[in-house]
Amino acid sequence: MITTTKIETELGIMIAGAVEEGICLLEFSDRRMLNTEYKDLSRYFKTTIEDGENVHFKSLRKQLKEYFEGTLKEFSLSLCTPGTIFQQAVWKELMNIPYGGTRSYLEQSIALGKPESIRAVANANGMNRVSIIIPCHRVIGSDGQLTGYGGGLIRKRWLLDHEKKHSGKPVDLSLF
Fold first, then answer.
1. Fewer Cβ atoms within 10 A, N terminus or C terminus of the chain?
2. Is the pTM above the cut of 0.70?
């Protein structure tokens, strides 16, 4: 069974989902794709989704609290993120973007060894179901502008500002 719970954060209520292997979902409750993500996860795991508790939620709550306080810069949670081989590679590469840093979709494509696959990388980035922990918010347009984020650009801006503030790096106000 996939168990879900609500977690209040500085940016609004998030929905977390977990299976025995780890966290499989962390999304803002107002994300338009949330119902689609529920259906995809239910189909992938061949099970139902129910509210409740899961052993992984305690660590998730603690680490999210520390992240929002600015004291946690790298999550150490068990994740279970089903997807295609390409999506898995994109999500793994997202984890290589340092806290407080950003990369463009082109830079992500190059890091994956597929510089011609910018749109596919952007699409896989958008299919990430575990926001913040798999930091898709750290990917920006090649022109330095904020682009696409399932949680909304206001939240993306807040997350980038928060990470830069707590990373010791100067905040690049041109992004805002």
1. C
2. yes
